[in-house]
Amino acid sequence: MENFQFYSPTEFVFGRDTEDKAGELVKKHGGSKVLIHYGGGSAERSGLLGRVRASLDKAGISYTELGGVKPNPRDTLVYEGIELCRKEGIDFILSVGGGSTIDSSKAIALGVPYDGDFWDFYCGRAVAKAALPVGTVLTIAAAGSEGSGDSVITKEDGGLKRGTGTDLIRPRFSILDPQLTCTLPAYQTACGATDIMAHVFERYFTNTTEVEVTDRLCEAVLLTMIKETPRVIADPNNYDARANIMWAGTVAHTNIVGVGREQDWNSHGIEHELSALYDCAHGAGLAVIMPAWMEFVYKHNALRFAQAATRIWGCQMDFEHPEVTALEGIKRFRSFLHSIGMPINFAELGAREKDIPALVEKFGIGGGRTGGFVHLSAEDIAEIYRIAAKAEL
Amino acid sequence: MENFQFYSPTEFVFGRDTEDKAGELVKKHGGSKVLIHYGGGSAERSGLLGRVRASLDKAGISYTELGGVKPNPRDTLVYEGIELCRKEGIDFILSVGGGSTIDSSKAIALGVPYDGDFWDFYCGRAVAKAALPVGTVLTIAAAGSEGSGDSVITKEDGGLKRGTGTDLIRPRFSILDPQLTCTLPAYQTACGATDIMAHVFERYFTNTTEVEVTDRLCEAVLLTMIKETPRVIADPNNYDARANIMWAGTVAHTNIVGVGREQDWNSHGIEHELSALYDCAHGAGLAVIMPAWMEFVYKHNALRFAQAATRIWGCQMDFEHPEVTALEGIKRFRSFLHSIGMPINFAELGAREKDIPALVEKFGIGGGRTGGFVHLSAEDIAEIYRIAAKAEL
């Protein structure tokens, strides 16, 4: 196990009707003038924004609003938010939505106290020194942004998708009411579940040895997702299944299941180019990419993949041919994703094989290699896209 | 799943030589005048105290010291610590030791800013409003106090052992260096491992339904302990096994594996009377009590015990007779405890069956019942002591 620091100071308030505590939580965490940042009209139509406003009113907290966050959140709205916050003297950002809204909120939070262009933090030109505090009311179990210090933003001009990470933007509190996720369409629910599982697998496949505790914690989250996801696809109003998925999604991404070990994250990087180019859902892109990545790399440590197959997917171990077991696990993962309504190849995702050279070009490693479980060259990444393009059950 | 709040703001700094960061961490978390609180001479002899002092010196932080914390930490030393802190104008308590030292530190932290008797918080006469900040350098994986808001203190006069819990005493940081635990005798290591497993089982046996995610997380910690504990008993210097146990112990008690569900804690309560009367190690007492408690209550939900038996202990499920599987799991737990050197009955612990009426009397529920998985009467508790007294493999 490697040395690590783990710091997750977010106050999680979980359960039915917890959005009514938004006002008292903003107050407790030092906010007095709030920007409510949200996405489309559904937060208004569902009555959620109304309840949040009522809660802020009750706590005597004033607020301004900025809606319009889209999936794969854009830099353009972030600039607008930064300007608005400065003009209104905002001291707290309350994010009402999913990962895109939270990531957009975090970007605004970083930009407000910074003299330069907030994009500096996303392209590695600067390290953040300060940020406005952020709180969240989560509406979809997926990105884990409600419990992380990460944010991913897409540059409108050119579609560049880049991320940044700092403890400064870990939410002060996150309100998790599983009821809010019951109205999600099955496709979005499945995309979220795929994202959660991918967050765990990115940590699971590692070259660090002797990490039993985090292996087991990773497996715990995955076993939960495998049990609970089909239940919410079958019955969107199953509160308990929604609740298990929501907490699993948060645990998956606070990094408590991934400390002390090298992590991979190449599937996320490879997927980002798909959602940037086709504006597809991140989870759907991951469903296509991650099993393909697994098929490309599994021989690097077939026993680790066999461990996943037996412990997570319930495969019988073939002790004479561990690679057979390893492949069987990957196959079951793809079948599972298909069973919850996810695409499994380029055609089902709406991606085009002929774009592969452009995707690889945009990934932008030139003649170098990525880090992670297996260090990938541009040609390796092209091959993963090709496997993903043609995948079948 | 039930509604819950989860808040664990402790900064965990984990790995080799992390004790050298004590000074910078105290500074980061606002301390300038520190009480170093510790136990016996081993922290001095091992050179740990010297390294901590050097780290504080380097950060320009002044300090006073108070040693002498004993297992089952006493109120008398807490009073001494409170007086010393007030006299010296201490603004931060740095706890160097195990659960007893941390619990004593937390009690001092609560007592300093309080006008009345600190014991008020432990016997339920008052609710704490403030506390000095606490940081820890952990020397044994066991109590989980390094990541919890709990503290248990024993009243010297009469041996009353009582606990309190508040977010105010969650450590600001905890330094976890597995190397520091390599010098522990096997018996203490095993006591610590038993305590960690007990913390999980107290959460695992619940009447709350639909808690798959926390069930799986509990099982993850237990499976880790079952793999790693025999390795450190066989080879005390196995760093990786020590590291897995140390992080498992912290995760077990931040409550991330226990949120959203009713918990039990009767085994802890029943054990506390043993360690208060005989001054035995808490973990050793738990090794005797917890399997006995399980045998007394398992019929209340035999399928939950069968789940534990199959998922944790690898038993084959007897679908015609789930109670047989349930009992087999309990038997394997006791055998496991015995295999790591723990006592399994009163004789091995040094307890006396004839004291049972006195133990029950001191437990102090009179004609009432406890809460938890099964609500126990005084007679039930007596029966659990009797089962524990006579237990065999």
Produce the secondary structure layout:
The structure is a homodimer of 393-residue chains.
Chain A (H helix, E strand, L loop, with lengths): L3 E11 L7 H7 L4 E6 L3 H4 L2 H11 L3 E5 L8 H14 L3 E6 L1 H13 L7 H4 L11 E5 L11 E5 L6 E5 L7 E4 L9 H19 L7 H23 L4 H16 L11 H13 L3 H16 L4 H10 L10 H18 L6 H4 L6 H8 L14 H13 L3
Parallel strand pairs in A: 1-8, 2-3, 2-4, 4-5, 5-8
Antiparallel strand pairs in A: 6-7
Helix pairs in contact in A: 1-3, 4-5, 7-8, 7-9, 7-11, 8-9, 10-11, 10-15, 11-13, 11-16, 12-13, 15-16
Describe the structure.
2 copies of one chain form a homodimer. By secondary structure, chain A is an alpha/beta fold. Chain A folds into 2 domains: 11-180, Rossmann fold, CATH 3.40.50.1970; 186-390, Up-down Bundle (Dehydroquinate synthase-like, alpha domain), CATH 1.20.1090.10. Helix content of chain A is 49%, strand content 12%. Chain A has 16 helices and 8 strands. In chain A, the strands form 2 sheets. Chain A has a 6-stranded parallel β-sheet with strand order 1-8-5-4-2-3, with helices on both faces. In chain A, strands 6-7 form a two-stranded antiparallel ribbon. In chain A, a hairpin with a 6-residue loop joins strand 6 (150-154) and strand 7. The first copy, chain A, is globular, with a radius of gyration of 20 Å. Chain A binds chain B through residues 1-16, 18, 209-214, 216-217, 219-221, 223-224, 227-228, 240-241, 243-244, 247-248, 251, 256, 259-260, and chain B through 1-16, 18, 209-214, 216-217, 219-221, 223-224, 227-228, 240-241, 243-244, 247-248, 251, 256, 259-260.
